[in-house]
Amino acid sequence: MDLSRRSFLKLAGATAAAATLTGVGLRKASASPSEPLRIKYTKELHTVCTFCGVGCGVICNVRDGVIVNADGDPDHPVNEGTLCSKGSAHYNISYVYDEKGNPKPNPKRLTHVLYRAPGASSYETKDWDWALEEIAKRIKDTRDRTLVETETVNGQQVTVNRTNSICWLGSAFCTDEENYLFHKMARSMGVINVDHCARL
Amino acid sequence: MDKLLYEKCQEEITRCNRLYDGFSNASPFISTICSAAYEYFKEHPVTPLPAYDQDEAEESIRDRRSLALNPSLHTKDVVGLLKSFGEAAVKTNQKLKATVKEINDYFDRFLLDSPEEVKKEDIFNLRDSLIKETELEEDLATFLFSFLLFSFYRQHLQPTSEVLRTDLWERGDCPLCGEKPHYGLLRSEDGAKQLECWSCGTQWLHTRIKCPYCDNTDMEKLGFFTVEDNEKVRVNYCQKCCQYYKIIDVRKFHADGDIVLVIHNLASLDYDLLARREGFTPGSGLEWVNKDEIVEAQD
To answer: Of the candidates A6, B26, B53, B85, which lies 20 to 30 Å from B105 by C-alpha distance?
Structure first.
């Protein structure tokens, strides 16, 4: 049996008072089982503010699946922790208010892909894989169907490889590099209607 | 501890009395300990170590290597300061007289058996032996020994601290001494997470949603808990490494000037107890909770 001097003295009942933080007044009392503290677990999740083209980084505090607060993301290069008044309040988007003015999570908040087929009167729930594949398929179909390969200019056949049936809208939330790649992608498909959302 | 820090500590104790329930019972002891450190260093001033070469320090920081400065301390000074802490404890609680005498006898033997200078690991070995052999419990031992190192290292490393490019540091451990932090704050101006070394007092910014111990950035495995009706202390945890640290949200209360986090850490030890009971371990390696306190809740 491994018996330290302290254990031996304890067994012999010959010990002095235990020197603890409690003994000098620092009692961790409020966390005792008789008066338990109620713990609230919160997750911090990154997102981007939806209001304008600046694209500020936001940290959403999520408790039990509900957004309870939004902070400017201090590590985001665009806003470095700041948010405008709209951005600060933007977590309210996820709430609706009852007759008494109390907030509750908006039951109609979009949390998954909804699809309404041509001619249909209602939406059906789809997953993201389906949606992305469908978008890609339709872009390609439209492009292949409407591609103009050549055009006569001054009596001569000139290669143009363009489609007028698709418009590509870029985003101010994207980085320069992302926008460069989007632009390349649009041009390579023959899309000539390329525009951008920044209208600040 | 210099005069400026001493005065800041006293101001912080007053503020924490207002901010934290129950801390006023402990503040006389904390205040006496600060006075003891101040008086000790007034009589035994510390000579700061020469500053680290600025270029070398910057190169090390850019290479993501901590300077890992852990200077040896004079054994006599270590024992001297610890004994003055013991006197402060007896002043607060006379019942501890016999215990402190027992501990002081242990210190005397340590002084005889040790070389003139001791390293940080020797000091922590002394702490562990005291817990095993005397009536000193883990939580008080952690406070006394971490405050001892804080008092010495802050002064020893001050010249290097002044030239250290902490703005280039992205890791979770201390860029100056290499220790892992136990607490930090969210800055009032931008909500940035600033960690502070419990050992040398160095402060540096760290990515808000990232574990300082295992570098995990998976948002689903990171989070914090607070206590109902009190949002100023957060216990940040990582479910990947199951470790925690505390963050004081300075945005939740009015605070002019610097915050002395050492005092806030003491005032918020309830949260360490909660974190231990929730199954997390302190990433800093500093155990602020006694084993019987953790077991109590599980019964």
So the answer is: B26
